[in-house]
Amino acid sequence: MSDDFNMSMRKFLKQVGVTSQQAIEDAMRAAGSDTTAGQTFEAKMTLTIDGIDMEHVVTGQIKGRD
To answer: What is the C-alpha to C-alpha distance for residues 60 and 2, in angstroms, rounded to an integer?
Structure first.
């Protein structure tokens, strides 16, 4: 794979990671600690790429703040 491809992919994945973390933190804050404390939430991220019929799903768990 080319250097341009690798750089653009890394830039995109960094943006996904940073903005996703911010969105999760905002949602947890908005829900309030009474709702999230001690809870474990099922999470799912779906990545699609238009034009190459690609879909990738990642699932996991996120623990609420105490």
So the answer is: 31
